[in-house]
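#struct-help
A.M.: can someone run this one for me? Single chain, 133 residues.
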Amino acid sequence: MNEEKLTVLFVDDEPAVLNGLRDVLRRFRREWVMVFALGPEAALVELDRVQFHAVVSDMRMPGIDGATLLSIVKERQPQAARLVLSGHADPDLVARACTVAHEFLQKPCDPRTLSAAILRACQLNTSFAEVQK
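D.P.: on it. Structure tokens below:
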């Protein structure tokens, strides 16, 4: 990855979760541009506005679930790393997420673990894109 800031979209349908992420990830604001979308519909609007390096989504949300949202991300922004951050480890949900996500993380997630996963997924995606050229 180059020296530009990572642009990361966080999607959850619970304002408290987004506020918690905003607080614990505050230390990365010099390195990342972070966008917080309240629900999948708001995330779709952001996807039309901004090119993201990574999208981190909850799985269980009303309307469009995380796996469906990440499949849309895969279509619209294939270069974006896709991660699930979920409090639900339902085997069916995990299996669906594995088809579109680079990584599945459990809530609550330590900020260092989350940031390392985002960086790793972005680096892998960048390396893969360079190999494909």
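A.M.: thanks! The beta strands are 6-12, 32-38, 54-57, 81-86, 103-106.
D.P.: also worth noting: Helices lie at 15-24, 40-49, 66-76, 91-98, 111-132.
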